[in-house]
Amino acid sequence: MPREQAAELQANQISAWFGEHKVLDRVSLTMHAGQVTALIGPSGCGKSTFLRILNRMHEMIPSASLAGEVVLDGADIYHPGQRITAARRNIGMVFQKANPFPAMSIYDNAIAGLKLCGIKASRAQKDFLVEDSLRKASLWDEVKDRLQQPGGGLSGGQQQRLCIARSLAVSPRVLLMDEPCSALDPTSTRRVEETIESLRGQVTIVIVTHNMQQAARVSDTCAFFLASQNTPGAIVEHGDTHAMFNNPQDQRTSDYVNGRFG
Ligand SMILES: Nc1ncnc2c1ncn2[C@@H]1O[C@H](COP(=O)(O)OP(=O)(O)OP(=O)(O)O)[C@@H](O)[C@H]1O
């Protein structure tokens, strides 16, 4: 099971609809290999929809449609020849609410993705992957003596790190995180942020967050989404996080990062 490198992900001219309702308009963004990109913006501007488009989850919603392309290392994941399972394996996702399998052991939770992705592994390989992914998710030391206990018995923050481990166990090249800390207390939030920090360079991370301090702390690059009244969401400004927070080029970015609206 070779471990692959972080990959660049490029969204080109992405538009999205729910039925007749257009929610994103020609959004283009390059998410650089091994970097952390934060998606920020007021509620309802299409950040989560954009994130779900990046690993083909948007198409699971019956009324949903989209235009544009998502290119992972040179190949459009929406090309008819591309398998949805390959996109999901290469581009993992962690959600707002931790969703481990509650009755399944911590060990089995960590490697639950192998079966879903059709990856066969020996017992020794599984043992290695469990330890490796739990270490990467900064959870190993807390659970190494109780790997056979149910995942549902962990604290909320530990469950979220278990979900991160589960995503990492299939060696994704990109990890999408949709407000991963919004249900966590400050200590658990810090642990998840430390985990993100330690993954930098190994996997490309795209994180949606409403927490401006978090975006400033964890991301290299930031994209500010906005949906003005009755118009679909679009990117107002994107670039180096430090520059976006300290010297934004657009007044609306300045207002948002300084808490003046949204
Ligand atoms: N399943 C759905 N069916 C219909 N409309 C939807 C669906 N999901 C989202 N929308 C609409 O798409 C638009 C963008 O929603 P989205 O959740 O992507 O925004 P967001 O920026 O992530 O918001 P938040 O920060 O509140 O999570 C909104 O107008 C929302 O009402």
UniProtKB/TrEMBL annotation:
The lineage's top-level taxon is: Bacteria
Q: Which SMART domains does the record cross-reference, listed alphabetically? A: AAA
Which Pfam families does the entry link to? ABC_tran
Q: Which residues form the ABC transporter domain?
A: 9-257
Instruction: Tell me the SUPFAM superfamilies matching this sequence.
Output: P-loop containing nucleoside triphosphate hydrolases
Q: GO molecular function, one example?
A: ATP binding
What PROSITE patterns does the entry give? Answer: ABC_TRANSPORTER_1, ABC_TRANSPORTER_2
* GO terms under cellular component: membrane
Q: Which UniProt keywords apply?
A: ATP-binding, Nucleotide-binding, Translocase, Transport
Name the InterPro entries for this protein: AAA+_ATPase, ABC_transporter-like_ATP-bd, ABC_transporter-like_CS, P-loop_NTPase, PstB-like
Q: Name one GO biological process term.
A: phosphate ion transmembrane transport
NCBIfam families linked to this entry: 3a0107s01c2 (TIGR00972)
Under what name is this protein listed? Phosphate ABC transporter ATP-binding protein
Source organism of this protein record? Psychromicrobium lacuslunae
